[in-house]
Design brief:
This protein is an alpha/beta fold. It is about 30% helix and about 15% strand. The chain is built from 3 helices and 3 strands. The protein is globular, with a radius of gyration of 16 Å.
């Protein structure tokens, strides 16, 4: 095994979760205060029109279904077809910009999926 002068994220995740771990982009239907008029309307320089969520499924799709779709896309990158584990990442816009009950429901649905190791 090659020793690196640093600890990379892939190695950290392998040690933490016991194998290959992939981040999957999800869309929780959020907006952003820099787009909705609360603070501004132009958005941020680093966000695309989709709020940097260009790889997430449709926001009309249930989170559990988005996870399944994302897993199918990522699976071909897993070594030897292994299952691996996943980090549920709410990508689009500001991923905590919603009322707490909605966030609890949405995040709870994501972390209850058996293949999701982290949020």
């Amino acid at each position: 095994m090659d020793e690196k002068p640093y600890r990379d994220l892939n190695t950290y995740y392998r040690n933490m979760f016991g194998g290959k771990t992939a981040k999957i982009s999800l869309d929780g239907g959020f907006t952003c205060p820099n787009r909705d008029g609360t603070i501004g309307t132009g958005g941020c320089l680093f966000c695309s029109a989709g709020g940097s969520g260009d790889f997430a499924a449709s926001r009309q799709t249930a989170v559990s279904r988005q996870i399944e779709q994302a897993m199918a896309q990522v699976k071909r990158k897993m070594p030897d077809g292994s299952q691996g584990s996943y980090i549920a990442y709410f990508q689009s816009y500001t991923n905590t910009y919603a009322p707490l009950p909605y966030l609890k429901q949405l995040f709870g649905e994501a972390v209850s999926h058996p293949a999701v190791a982290a949020l």
